[in-house]
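One such shown below:
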Amino acid sequence: MIKILDKKFILKNDKNTKETTWDKVMSLKKKDDMKVGLANTLKDHDIETIIATADFFGAEERDLHQIYLDLKVARFRVFEWLAMAINGRLENQSAIKVFAHSFIKSNGVTSKFIQDLRETDYDIDNSWQDIELDF
């Protein structure tokens, strides 16, 4: 249902609308602990962790390059980058599901998300496969 408030369109979840993965990620944006203003403060080794995870789950060169550009050059905050990935910016669905699962599991705290990617063996822990992508 769309409701108009102050000349803005706002999507309102009613009882028949379930919360999407995108909604969950966006609801955690205030918990970001690795930012200055509108930019992320990820270190090179943090970005390498994300790229290595995507590579492990079969991401193509295009996706790996896009992750680097988004996080290193454009310096999108992690929740923004992940929300765009969920909506189709990246093609590799397995990697996106792992990232979404880990981010939600880490309650949106970016440093915990990075640490979780380093410590959890998502090749064995398949709980990420239950994540539904919105696109």
About this structure: Residues 44-56 form the longest helix (13 residues).
